[in-house]
């Protein structure tokens, strides 16, 4: 159940990024009201020099605070974006728009088929690393870890 909820939240946030990119005018909050300083975001695991890396800083209630889109460069890329005031939690959402259509492409089950990342921040960070991954692979890995932990817990002798 938690996996479905996580997938729904990430998909909704990343789809919001897609809509912002395709609209060409993003509904950003006024910087003077909601942002304070900058954050350095390093995006890792970029496989090819094709498409765009799309990144946004989102408030706790999923309002975009800042946004950037640049041509993808294999390896890692670094972005400087506006961030909320120190102490204010936020999220960093990233995806690799490989086919340059401005959208986070989804399969029939509404799972992203392009690499993406989401990083939740407590509000004290000045740098963040986001590793692009396929969401379905990430969810399968988490389920396998949870199953292994449950099995390990069950195999421990009780006192």
In short:
This protein is an alpha+beta fold.
Describe this structure as you would to a colleague.
It is a single chain. This protein is of the alpha+beta class and 159 residues long. It has one domain: Immunoglobulin-like, CATH 2.60.40. The protein has helices at residues 2-23, 31-34, 135-155; strands spanning 35-46, 52-59, 64-71, 75-84, 90-97, 116-121, 127-131. Strands 3-2-5-6 form a four-stranded antiparallel beta sheet, with helices on one face. Strands 4-1-7 form a three-stranded mixed beta sheet. Strand 2 and strand 3 (64-71) form a beta hairpin. The protein is globular, with a radius of gyration of 17 Å. The two termini are 31 Å apart. Mean pLDDT is 81; it is low at 19-33.
Features:
Immunoglobulin-like; four-stranded antiparallel β-sheet; 159 residues; 36% strand; three-stranded mixed β-sheet; alpha+beta
What is the overall silhouette?
A: globular
CATH architecture: Sandwich
Spans of at least 5 consecutive residues whose pLDDT stays below 50 are 19-33
Structural class: alpha+beta
Distance between the termini: 31 Å
Number of strands: 7
Work out the helicity level: 25-40%
Largest sheet: 4 strands, antiparallel
Q: List the helices and strands in order.
A: HHEEEEEEEH
The CATH class turns out to be Mainly Beta
Strand content: 35-45%
Whole-number radius of gyration?
17 Å
Give the number of helices.
Answer: 3
For the biggest β-sheet, the strand order reads 3-2-5-6
Total domain modules: 1
**CATH topology call:** Immunoglobulin-like
pLDDT averaged over residues: 81
Task: Describe the oligomeric state of these chains in a short phrase.
Answer: single chain
């Amino acid at each position: 159940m938690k996996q479905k909820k996580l997938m729904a939240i990430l998909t909704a946030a990343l789809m919001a990024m897609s809509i912002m990119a395709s609209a060409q005018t993003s509904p950003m909050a006024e910087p003077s009201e909601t942002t304070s300083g900058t954050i350095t975001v390093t995006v890792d695991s970029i496989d090819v020099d094709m498409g765009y890396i799309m990144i946004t800083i989102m408030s706790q209630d999923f309002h975009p605070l800042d946004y950037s889109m640049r041509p993808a460069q294999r390896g890692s890329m670094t972005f400087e974006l506006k961030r909320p005031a120190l102490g204010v939690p936020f999220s960093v959402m990233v995806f690799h728009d490989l086919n340059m259509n401005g959208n986070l492409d989804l399969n029939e089950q509404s799972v992203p088929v392009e690499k993406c990342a989401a990083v939740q921040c407590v509000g004290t960070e000045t740098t963040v690393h986001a590793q692009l991954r396929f969401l379905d692979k990430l969810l399968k890995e988490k389920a396998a870890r949870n199953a292994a932990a449950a099995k390990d817990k069950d195999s421990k002798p009780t006192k």
